């Protein structure tokens, strides 16, 4: 249960980072690095999310719920 909650929190953080990057892209003019930092955070969150999903499949906490794979 904690793994699914952590995945949901990371997904929410990814969406937040995505929209903050969009905001910085539209509003920042000049030599601000906020867009680069938002992209860096989004990449780090994606790597963490993929790691959690891989760990969930490896540990058996996550699985496929499709009838053709059972």
- Biggest beta sheet attributes: none
- Tell me the strand percentage band: under 5%
Percent in helix: over 70%
Q: Write the H/E string, N to C.
A: HH
Q: Which ranges are low-confidence, i.e. pLDDT below 50, for 5 or more consecutive residues?
A: none
Question: How many strand units?
Answer: 0
Number of helical runs? Answer: 2
Pfam families: DUF2909
InterPro entries: DUF2909
Transmembrane segments: 6-26, 38-58
Keywords: Membrane, Transmembrane, Transmembrane helix
Concise structural overview:
Helices cover 74% and strands 0% of the residues.
Please give a structural write-up.
This protein has 70 residues and is an all-alpha fold. Helix content is 74%, strand content 0%. The radius of gyration is 16 Å and the shape is elongated. The mean pLDDT is 90.
Features:
single chain; 70 residues; mainly alpha; 2 helices
Summarize the helices and strands and which ones pair or pack.
Layout: H1 2-27, H2 34-59
Helix pairs in contact: 1-2
